[in-house]
Amino acid sequence: MSLLSLEHVSVAYDNRLILEDFNLSLQKGQLLSLLGPSGCGKTTTLRLIAGFLNAEAGNFMFSGKDYTKVPVEKRNFGFVFQSYALFPHLSVFDNVAFGLRLRKLKEAEVKKRVNRMLETVSLGGFEKRLPGALSGGQRQRVAIARALVIEPDLLLFDEPLSNLDANLRVNMRVEIRRIQQELGITTVYVSHDQEECFSISDQVAVMNNGKIEQLDHPANIFKYPASEFVARFIGFGNFIAFDGRNDEGADIELSRGELKFQAAKRPGGEGNTGLLGAIRPDDLQLLGAGADMGTGTEGNALTGKVQVSTYLGRSYQYQVETELGVFTVNQEMEQPFIQGQQVTVYFPKEKLVLVQ
Amino acid sequence: MLSLYTLLVFIFLLGPLVIISITSFEPGTVLKFPPEGFSLKWYKNIFEVSAFMETFRTSIVISLLGNLLALLLGVPAAYALSRYRFHGRDTLNAVFLSPVLIPGIVLGFTLLRYLIVVYNLPIVAGLLIGHTVIMLPFIIRVIASSLENFDFAVEEAAQSLGATRVYTFFKVVLPNIRSGILAAILIAFLESFNNVDISVFMTGPGISTLPIQMLTYVQNYFDPTIAAISVILMVLTAALMFIIERLMGFAYFTKR
């Protein structure tokens, strides 16, 4: 049974529906990320779970109880804000102790728990500092400690790392995952950064326009996006709209007019029924015109002309114009293709996925 | 050239104050510059004229009570205006600030016309209401500007940790705008204590404020007592402004 579930929830803001008939559930101990562009409803979903927003319709169930009408302060959920939201007038110690003191714990117990939590987030020795005297990373750690020390039933993160610089972001997300797994605490994490979400989550929900487009293990989403939106969002830069499809053979046979393509079936079956082919720029291969393509590559190739070539550092990126439009190809190569050169774009069948 | 210009502006602004200060030490009975000696007798005179002491007390009481009323109205108003985006917010903002925009004479006359003439309120009550009205915009504006630097996510953080809205307001919001509230109180106090245009309509037989009493006094006497009072008020004002500057800086005067 799931610990948390949103059932047919609708949320409106300024008479505009942000979420409509929205459903979501989460198992105990898991970390679920809500991923999507700004305005997709991910923060709204998080704030609804936290209790900062009220639903117009639908229910929020938590551990078997109806939490729809339970006010924020009675939910016992930890919330970590993008802006950290530390109490500026209180020391690090008092910030972390805030929730414990509200729970009327003995001061000795408060002291013990706060100190243990500050050790957990590697902030021992910072007790007396005011938030203003801390760096961004330290502030975020205080915010996490403050949310965790109350032993919340659920931990919520709202873009917690987006105000930090790139290196710190990577360190902090490892830290967040470590603490989350150590304490086995169920977590909902909102971000617009796919790498961040994929690296720390058990489940990722990719959202668009107030709907979940795909909810799955990160590796599955990365390999097999379910929709065109998800594919685009996670970097499938090339698309081919096919007009025929045959699933009877070992591979899926696809056609576009006279052109034939093949796509490998997914292991375990139950692929997608869509007609739109998607492939990442990294997975396309570029060959000189007339090069020997070896066996088994009948079809799955297009001839074209290099329009633009740019240097990315690790590889070159080419825009190749073909009869099916322009394709983006990333390729490491000693001798790059030059602008105007005739080339063949090859689509490995294992990498070509079909989306709705 | 520019520094000369600056110097002239300073002389123009501060000159009269310097001259008043110097003449307050005049030993004679007529205000003149330069003074013919040095004496503190007109300072002593302030405390001997009972009208000054009485109106000083009235001024203080009205300013403090009015301040309290303006805070009770102004803090929630400033909070609502900063915290929420709601329909009619801009209009409400304009209404709350209108006493600064309307000439004092007009406001004073209007208050007289309605509070005293129509509703027949006692003079003290009318005076108190008038002063509350002129203090309110300053209270709202200064507190709203200090709330502008307050991240309301902090409030939500407190709630998520188990605090009620009321607890959050007193334990989290108020401590963070404390200096703003203090500055608001001092600025409003100065505004009320020095006010002439509203008071002149709202004072009456037996009840007056210090500035109105000074005005009345000058109409009858021309001795240096007024200069002496002016010096004392200047020192008081300067001290308060110094504290305000220390609390908040003057930045909010130029903001928005």
* Element-by-element helix/strand order of chain A: EEEHEEEHHHEHEHEEHHEEEEEEEEEEE
The count of helical stretches of chain A stands at 8
Please tell me the CATH architecture of the largest domain in chain A by its name.
3-Layer(aba) Sandwich
Going by CATH, the homologous superfamily of the largest domain in chain A would be: P-loop containing nucleotide triphosphate hydrolases
Question: What form of chain A results from the Cα inertia axes?
Answer: elongated
Query: Spans of chain A of 5+ residues with little confidence (pLDDT < 50)?
Result: none
What percent of residues of chain B adopt helix (DSSP H or I)? Answer: over 70%
Number of structural domains of chain A: 2
**Rg of Cα set of chain B:** 22 Å
Largest chain-chain contact? A-B, 27 and 16 residues
Class by alpha and beta content of chain A: alpha+beta
* Gyration radius of chain A, in Å: 25 Å
What strand order characterises the main sheet of chain A? 6-7-8-3-9-10
Q: Can you give a write-up of this model?
A:
Chain A: Keywords: ATP-binding, Nucleotide-binding, Transport. Chain A: Residues 4-234 form the ABC transporter domain. Chain A: GO terms for molecular function: ATP binding. The complex is a heterodimer of chains A (356) and B (256). With 356 residues, chain A is an alpha+beta fold. Chain A folds into 2 domains: 4-228, P-loop containing nucleotide triphosphate hydrolases (Rossmann fold, 3-Layer(aba) Sandwich), CATH 3.40.50; 235-355, Beta Barrel (OB fold (Dihydrolipoamide Acetyltransferase, E2P)). Chain A has helices at residues 42-50, 92-102, 107-120, 136-148, 166-183, 194-200, 218-223, 228-233; strands spanning 4-13, 16-26, 31-35, 57-62, 65-66, 77-80, 154-158, 187-191, 203-208, 211-216, 238-241, 244-246, 251-256, 259-264, 276-279, 285-288, 301-311, 316-322, 325-331, 342-346, 353-355. In chain A, strands 6-7-8-3-9-10 form a 6-stranded mixed beta sheet, with helices on both faces. A 5-stranded antiparallel beta sheet of chain A has the order 16-20-17-18-19, with no helix packed on it. In chain A, a hairpin with a 2-residue loop joins strand 18 (316-322) and strand 19. In chain A, helix 2 (92-102) packs parallel to helix 4. The longest helix of chain A is centred in the middle third of the chain and has 18 residues, at 166-183. Chain B has a single domain (50-254), classed as MetI-like (MetI-like fold), CATH 1.10.3720. Chain B is 77% helix and 0% strand. Chain B contains 13 helices and no strands. Chain B has helices at 2-23, 41-48, 50-83, 89-101, 104-118, 123-147, 153-160, 165-176, 178-193, 199-202, 210-220, 225-248, 251-254. The longest helix of chain B is centred in the N-terminal third of the chain and has 34 residues, at 50-83. The model of chain B has no long low-confidence stretch (mean pLDDT 88).
